[in-house]
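Appendix B.2, paired examples.
Example (i):
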Amino acid sequence: AADPGNEITAKVMVIIVNMWLGIPYTMLMTSGILMNIPADLYEAARVDGASKTKMFFKITLPYVIFVTTPYLISSFIGNINSFNTIFLLTGGLPAHGSYTAGGTDLLVTWLYKLTIDSEQFNTGAVIGILTFIITATITLITYRNSKAYKEEDTFQ
C-alpha cells in the first residue's frame, strides 16, 4: 500500500504547479478586463451616491464574471484533462494496483496507462468516450446557462 503522506504531498504539489501555470494568465486577462470597464459607469454610480463596495458588486464583479465565463469553463475542462502536469510530475503515482488508477491519476492519465502500459484498449476507449461526453455536456450546459451566452451583445 502507498504511504498516505506521499500521496497527499504529490496531490498538493500538482495543485501548486497547476496554480503556478494558471494564475499569471488569469491575472493578465483580468487586469485587461478591469482596464476596459467604462469609466462612465463608475462616474454615474458615484453621482448616484454608490459606495465603493456597491460599485464593486454592481459594476466590477458582474463585468469581470461576464467576460471571463467562457475562459473559466475552458480552464475547468482543461484541468480535468491536465495530462501533462500529472504525468510529468508524478506519473499518476503512488500506485494502488496494476489496473486501478494511482493516487494522483486523472481519467486521462489512467487512460494512458491502461492503453500504453497495460494494453487494455477496450477499457481505455470507454474511458476516453465517457470523458468526452461528460466534459462536453458540462461545457455546453454551463455555457448555455451563462450570461455570456444569453446576453452576448451586452458588453461590446
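Example (ii):
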Amino acid sequence: MKIGKWPRLLLLAAPILAGCSGFWNAPSGGNGTGGCTTNCSTAASGNFYILNNGTTPQLVGYSFVAGVLTPMSGSPFAVAGAPFAMTIAPSGNFMYISSAGAGVDIYPIGTGGAPAAPTNISADQAFAMQVDSTGLWLIEALQATGGLQLNAIPIKSDGTYNAAIQVQSRAYAVTGTGLPLGQLVISPDNANIFVALGTAGTLIVPFNAGATTPNPNPLAANGNVIAVAHTGGSAQSVAVDPTNRLFYIGETLGDAAGTSGGLRVFNYSTALSATVTSVANSPFASGGLSPNFILPIANGTYVYVANGAGSSAAGN
C-alpha cells in the first residue's frame, strides 16, 4: 500500500487492536469521543480514518455506530497536500498528518471524531510517524542524504509542540535502492523504534521516552540493521506485539525459498543483539507480494497480515 496508488487507513476502536502505525492503529487510552475505552471486545464504537491522495487530497472519516461504519459529519476533510502518513496520540484526542503541502499538522479530534482546524508543528515531510505511549514524543522518519533521519518532536498534553524541550534528531547511514515509503513502529515498552526501509532492511534504534530533562536526545546514536532475507527482497512493514515478546517484519521475497512474500518473526529480547534470534519455522510464507501491514492482537497470541498481490489480483 504505497501512497499515490492506495489509500492509507487508521482505526481508533477496541483495545484488542494494536500494531503498526498507518493502517491499523488503536490508541492505548480513550478516543476522545465517548466511545469504548475499557474491556472492549468488538469494534462497536470508535472512529476510522482514511487518507486519500487523489485530485483533491483528503481525510475521510467514519464512526462505528452500533457496529455499523457511518460517515462522519463533515467528511471528507481537506488535507494541505499529498499525504504521506498519519498517527494518533495515545489519548485519542489528537491526530498528526504529514503531507507534501504543509509538513506535519496536528488536528484536534472533536465530538463525533471529526478533526478540527489543524495547526502546523513541523515542515518535515515525514513518510512515517508515531507518538510514543507516554504521549511525550512524536517520532518522524524522513529520507535524508545517505540514509534515514529520525526526529523526536517533544509534545505537550494538548498534543502541541513543547517549546521547553528541544527537538532531537539523528541520522542513520543505511543503504538500499532508494528508501521507499516504509513503516515505523515504537515498541510498547518505548525501548525501541523499528523502521522498515525497503531493500536496506529494517533499522532498530534504542529509544528513551523519559529523556526530557533538561534536553537529552531520546534517540540512540546507533541502531541495529536486519538485512532482508533474500537479495532483491524489500522490508515493507514492521510490528511489535503488545507483550514485547515478538517483533515482525513483512518482506517481499520473504518466504524461505525467496520467491514470494513472507512474515519474519523474531524474539524481541534479541532486537539489539549482534545475532537477532528468529522463532521456530520463521519465515512464514504469506503468498503474493508481501505483508504490507501487520496486526498483532493485544495478548500477542494471533497476528494478522494484509498481503498485497499487485494490481492484477486481490490481496489476502
